[in-house]
Amino acid sequence: MTGFPTFDVEGVKVPKLLIGINSLLGWSHTSVGRDRWIRRYYTARRIARVFERCMELGVYGVLGPVWPRLIEAIKIAEKETGERMLFVSTTIGEPRETEKQLRMLDGLYSPICCIHGAWTDSWPLENGRFVGLEKYLRLIRRSGRIPGLACHNGDRLRLVDEGDYDVSLFVTPVNKMGFYMYPTMESILEAIGKTKRPVIAIKPLASGRFDEGKIREWLEWVFCQKGVSGICVGFMSEEEAEEDIAHVKHILGIK
């Protein structure tokens, strides 16, 4: 299905390049106006067209929340191409909705589900432990999926890594300008450099804040960081997908 190299998460082969969805679902990290336009323009069918082009280019994995429009787009793309997508899902909304969201994944190939980064960033701590986090990791495990965890904070990622939690994958921002890397870029780079768990780097182009004309340089920098197993790049159009996928293929030596 793909020529992209993979990394292993409990036997699941995850490609080193995944499709990001913030630019397609309306979380641009830019402005309310842009978010409103995205949500009006990007129907599930239009999102699916971007996915279909990615799949033609060998990229079949997507990372994103359990969100109805995203789920619909994945199903449309699979029907149109006759190929299965790998959905590395994340929770979203309120923790009490976790069981409902896990049921929403039925029928999709989503073998990994991660706790959402916003949850982890604000989760209550007591004596260095995340209060009640194990409950939600167990819900994911009992659903037959592999628990992962997203985080935008290097200090908290380190606490999870050292805390003997049932987490098999980390998802965290990694980019040259330190965008969304809290409390500092160094804290996240240090945390992922020490973990033995695989790490997916999100926001590698800082949500569009990269230096003009230097996409390949930015992506290559991310791949070179110790601990990074794969990256997730958001594409807002088929043209952006073509451009960025070509850069990643060059970096990874894919013909």
Report on this model:
With 255 residues, the protein is an alpha/beta fold. The chain has a single domain (6-252), classed as TIM Barrel, CATH 3.20.20. It has 11 helices and 12 strands. The protein has helices spanning 22-25, 32-41, 44-56, 68-81, 98-104, 117-122, 133-142, 154-162, 185-194, 215-223, 238-252; strands at residues 6-9, 12-15, 17-20, 61-65, 86-90, 112-115, 125-126, 129-130, 146-150, 170-173, 199-202, 228-234. An 8-stranded parallel sheet has the order 3-12-11-10-9-6-5-4. A two-stranded antiparallel sheet has the order 1-2. Strands 7-8 form a two-stranded antiparallel ribbon. A hairpin with a 2-residue loop joins β7 (125-126) and β8. α8 (154-162) runs parallel beside α9 (185-194). The chain is globular.
Q: What is the CATH domain class?
A: Alpha Beta
Counting DSSP H or I runs of 4 or more residues, the number of helices is: 11
Report the average pLDDT across residues: 94
The SSE order reads EEEHHHEHEHEHEEHEHEHEHEH
Q: Oligomeric status of the shown chains? A: single chain
Residue share in helix: 40-55%
Which CATH architecture is right? Alpha-Beta Barrel
Which secondary-structure class do the elements indicate?
A: alpha/beta
Strand order of the largest sheet: 3-12-11-10-9-6-5-4
CATH fold node name? TIM Barrel
Strand content: 15-25%
Please report the distance between the alpha carbons of the first and last residues. 15 Å
CATH superfamily: NADP-dependent oxidoreductase domain
Domain count: the total is 1
Shape category: globular
Show unreliable segments. Answer: none
DSSP, total strands: 12
